[in-house]
Amino acid sequence: EAGVAQSPRYKIIEKRQSVAFWCNPISGHATLYWYQQILGQGPKLLIQFQNNGVVDDSQLPKDRFSAERLKGVDSTLKIQPAKLEDSAVYLCASSLDRLGLGNQPQHFGDGTRLSIL
Amino acid sequence: SQKIEQNSEALNIQEGKTATLTCNYTNYSPAYLQWYRQDPGRGPVFLLLIRENEKEKRKERLKVTFDTTLKQSLFHITASQPADSATYLCALVVPRGNTPLVFGKGTRLSVIA
């Protein structure tokens, strides 16, 4: 099966600019996650979707970050305006978990590496 | 406060030995615990999941234990090989908790030939 696809692979922008990331999960996976991974840290969950509804976004900085998952498939994550501390790898993952129990493996894409100048 | 800690940032072992990685947590009541492998420049890859009522899980050369009394999980790689060199992440799953999914910082394992 095809894995989780993310684009772009790399992005360099200046602070205060906006940026968007795209994720295409594995076909049939109900749950989609966006993570932020700062160098030397583990991934930090930003938002979790189940189909096209939000399950958890408690750690999403909502003043600058937004995410959507239209039609319960693809998803986009946007940052506007970007700050220096947003430099990180943004990972998307999907799983078969239909009940939000976390009892299914997550399949990760290779992420988008964002650098803020 | 809630914390998840992996025993060390880096672990070096000789090829053929057993690598043991530790994941400790405080003030969480996870229903599941997952282990992932991450190579440089790549996303994490799922290895094993263990439930709170399971003591041990095995998959080929991998074994994970889960002690909810000690609030600790141990991850073992037996007969380690240089190809096992990577960063290993543990993740707690707390369904419907304030932070439902929490990853540790990871342990970077180097297996020396």
Summarize this structure briefly.
The complex is a heterodimer of chains A (117) and B (113). Chain A is an all-beta fold and 117 residues long.
Helix content of chain B: under 10%
Low-confidence stretches of chain B: none
What gap, in angstroms, lies between the N and C termini of chain A? 37 Å
Query: What fraction strand of chain A?
Result: over 45%
| Class from helix and strand fractions of chain A | mainly beta
Mean pLDDT of chain A: 93
Structure in words:
Chain A is mainly beta and 117 residues long. Chain A has no helices and eleven strands. Chain A has strands at 5-7, 10-13, 19-24, 31-37, 44-50, 53-56, 65-68, 75-79, 88-95, 107-108, 112-116. In chain A, the strands form two sheets. In chain A, strands 2, 4, 5, 6, 9, 10 and 11 form a seven-stranded mixed β-sheet that branches. A four-stranded antiparallel β-sheet of chain A has the order 1-3-8-7, with no helix packed on it. In chain A, a hairpin with a 2-residue loop joins strand 5 (44-50) and strand 6. The mean pLDDT of chain A is 93. With 113 residues, chain B is mainly beta. Chain B is 0% helix and 57% strand. Chain B is built from no helices and eleven strands. Chain B has strands at 3-6, 10-14, 19-26, 32-38, 45-51, 56-59, 62-67, 72-77, 86-93, 101-103, 107-112. In chain B, strands 2, 4, 5, 9, 10 and 11 form a six-stranded mixed β-sheet that branches. In chain B, a hairpin with a 4-residue loop joins strand 7 and strand 8. Chain B is globular. The mean pLDDT of chain B is 92. Chains A and B meet through strand 5 and strand 10 of A and strand 4, strand 5, strand 9 and strand 10 of B.
